Amino acid sequence: MSSLPMNEPQTPCYHRETFKHEIKDLANGMAFDDLYTLNTQSGTQWDGFRHVRSLHDIIGANANLKGSIHHWSEHGGLVGRGVLLDYRGYADKKGVRYDSFMDHRIPYEELYLCGKDQGIDIRPEAQGGDIKIGDILFIRSGFAEKYHQVKSSEEWAKIALRPGAFGPDAQQRWAGVAQEEKMLDWLHDCYFAAVAGDSPSFEAWPTNQ
């Protein structure tokens, strides 16, 4: 898995601002500056624990800054062993057909079988598996592959700007891990340092919980 360029997706999901790059002329064509306007949620990014919180936790005199992602960089960054579960590849191999642009929910049992197919026991080491405390989990659900198959920017914009970004009736839909007790227990018991995926949301969207 690699990060998308800063200008992709061309139309960010959830009505976020698009990336802009401007060149500023400083001296009549002799010197220039680059100006970037970027919503850090518009493409490849890391969520801090404050991404979804009450407004009082984000700004003001009583703001809670302990959950911000910048603390990682201030302490040397995030380094660890990556564990990639290629669910898209596994699903194709097993004849499981689904649309990455719809809310296909990947349950724990399917991830377990996916790992087994790759030669990985995804249970935590304490339970006899291969996952060590501090590992970084990556799940490929196939979003990026399908995004690059979209034929035009206009077609992608219709997908990215589907109405109703939040709530069970949302038309913005993306494949991701299922919201279920087994998944929660597994993520907790493995003590991953971080989790990541190639979809606009790590969990299947919209949530069914």
Structural class assignment? alpha/beta
What summary fits the major beta sheet? 3 strands, parallel
The count of helical stretches stands at 7
- Low-confidence segments, given as residue ranges, are none
For the termini, the CA-CA separation is 29 Å
Could you explain how this protein is built, in words?
There is one protein chain. The protein is α/β, with parallel strands linked by helices and 209 residues long. Strand 1 and strand 2 (32-37) form a beta hairpin. It is globular. It is built from 7 helices and 7 strands. The chain has a 3-stranded parallel sheet. A two-stranded antiparallel sheet has the order 1-2. The chain has a two-stranded parallel sheet with strand order 4-6. Helices cover 24% and strands 14% of the residues. The model has no long low-confidence stretch (mean pLDDT 89). The two termini are 29 Å apart.
Features of this protein?
single chain; 209 residues; 3-stranded parallel sheet; 7 helices
Write the layout of secondary structure elements.
Blueprint lengths: L19 E6 L6 E6 L17 H4 L11 H5 L7 E5 H8 L10 E2 L1 H10 L18 E5 L2 H5 L5 H8 L15 E2 L3 H10 L3 E4 L12
Parallel strand pairs: 3-5, 4-6, 5-7
Antiparallel strand pairs: 1-2
Short description:
The chain has 209 residues and is an alpha/beta fold. It has seven helices and seven strands, in the order ββααβαβαβααβαβ.
